[in-house]
Amino acid sequence: MRLPLLLLSLIIATSIEAAPGFEVKRDTDSYRDWNTGQRRERTETSLRLDGGTLSMKALAQLLATDGKPIYPTLWDARVSGPDQALILFNRGSGQDFELARLYRKNGGKPQAEVLLRDLPYNWFNDARRKGWVSVGGADRLYLVQLQPLRIVDAGPGALLDVRGDLAVLADPGWNKRPPAFRAVDMQRGREVARLELDPACFVLPDFEFSHPLIYSGLGSSTPERLRFQDGPAWLEHNLELLTAPKPALRLRPTQQLPQPDPVRWGVTLREVDASPQPRTPESMGDASSPEIEEFADTLDLVPEQCQASNPNPPLRAGQEPYPSTSVATDDLCLGELLKGVPPTFREQRCVLPARTRTLAGSTQWALEEVRYGYRPGGKGAAIEQTVYQLRQGTTVNRYIAGSRGFDEALAIREVLPTGKGEALLKTRGDGAYELLRASTDAGGKLRLEYLDTLPYPASPFDASRAGWVYLRKPGLLVRLAPFAYEQAGESLLDIRGETLLYAYGDSETDRLTLGQRTFGSDHADDSPLPGLVLNAKCRREDDPYWEFTLPPVNATLEQSAAWFARHFDYQPGAQGAIRLRADHQLRARPGCAAR
């Protein structure tokens, strides 16, 4: 006779007797992840006692030993006997995980005892030994025997295998610890053997030992990543565990631990600080400084001791590492050798001794120019290098502190002597320049004065007009005696006495204006001095901004003054002081007229 399905279900349900003691129930369902569109599994763990579910409210009452209410979440559980269970829980959202023991005596009411706090993970893991589990992580691993209950603090590391009573762990070596292999006696709960590795010569893989759902889904182990299930075989291949006369660990001759990837430095040349270059009518791209290769050379640093201790190739052998550090040639060739750089490096690449000459200074300080050669890769012709350094007594520096209090070392990029014991310095850190003035105080000591910040790239010092120094970009003009400086603009043509002659094109009116003003005057309040304007009929179609009519953007004052004198006459103080010469050769349309 066939029974109705409902009756059959009732018969099955009532035929199950409640098991005495603790039980763990896991309900798994699937759901669609709306972020990825994939199906995922979700597991909810609950604890049963004598056939009935132990509610979160009851669990909270058991765990709230200090009387304060808690709102626990049960994450994982293991039964360690009819009247005992281990649980992993946390007391509220965002709090660390804890290990607790639930137990009862002689069938009485359940009780709770917190065993471990501040655990990083909320699941039990395989301890590679029957009747044991592990909790914690690579910073500190705990091995837990279920029955009788016992906890072994195994210390830092990933559990590779258990051999007899010895647990062997691999410690990747974080927080300034060297990487090491460790053997821990599970009976006595202490480390009995240790093998430390030189981190400069050996690299351990990433140990994917965190969760079974992760490491069980990995395809295979690689030199960069080791699966949990491959730990014992990897240990056997690379490491030997000795037990007599006392426990010891040593690398096998067959070990295949790779060396770390070499540390690659990128070597930069001291490039010439060139001003923007002029364009041509045929090439109307933006003016820019000459492009300089970022790294003229590279240096792979491999510690010498590794060649004897580890013959294996680097982890990513055959791949070109990107330079992790940028270093200038003078830091490699001059002064003391940098740490980790072999002495043969200078012999192969640096053309020494350097040639040094003093540019400015006093009896207590000197600004010096240093010239030497650098041969990239140790081959071919040497490239001439020029750097500057500050000597004060026996101390020599190619860098100085930022004059405005910034915590940055500024390289001295250009020095222009301007008088006895005086000079202008252009220094640069990671970005813009700082313009400094060096002079000598009454006691003969160096005095550095910050003048201005200059954008990069900036023009070289232009001292072609006696008594003046000009940087066309960004338009800074310095008068040496009496000392003063101001922003004169990038269109300065000439200096006559204290009068500045300049020119600029107006793209809105298509006019070219030549003007004059007095050095040190306020631009806004200065009464306009007689000038000259070339109207739009003078401008050629291929010169929309008068760029190719005016001197090039990298012209010195001497060159722009010659351009002005060739095309214009100047009579100071007269009406129409600037006049277009009849024999001018401006790049302009025929019949150009001025007003």
Overall morphology? elongated
Overall helicity: under 10%
Q: Provide the low-confidence segments as ranges.
A: 1-18, 286-293
The main sheet comes to: 5 strands, antiparallel
Please state the oligomeric state of the protein chains shown: single chain
Instruction: Note the beta-strand portion.
Output: 35-45%
So how many helices?
A: 8
Give the termini separation. 121 Å
Strand arrangement in the largest pleated sheet = 27-28-29-30-31
- Count the beta strands: 40
Helix/sheet category: mainly beta
The overall pLDDT, averaged over residues, is 87
Radius of gyration: 40 Å
Keywords: Signal
Organism: Pseudomonas solani
Protein name: WG repeat-containing protein
What tags apply to this protein structure?
595 residues; four-stranded antiparallel β-sheet; elongated; mainly beta
Q: How does the SSE layout of this entry go?
A:
Layout: H1 5-14, E1 22-32, E2 39-49, E3 52-53, H2 56-63, E4 73-81, E5 84-90, E6 97-103, E7 111-119, E8 125-126, E9 132-136, E10 141-145, E11 150-155, E12 158-163, E13 166-171, E14 180-185, E15 190-196, E16 206-208, H3 212-215, E17 225-227, H4 231-238, E18 239-242, E19 248-251, E20 263-268, E21 297-301, H5 306-309, E22 325-328, H6 329-333, H7 344-349, E23 350-361, E24 366-374, E25 383-392, E26 395-397, E27 399-401, E28 409-419, E29 422-428, E30 433-440, E31 446-454, E32 468-471, E33 476-479, E34 484-487, E35 492-496, E36 499-506, E37 511-518, E38 532-534, H8 557-567, E39 568-570, E40 578-580
Organism: Pseudomonas solani
Protein name: WG repeat-containing protein
Keywords: Signal
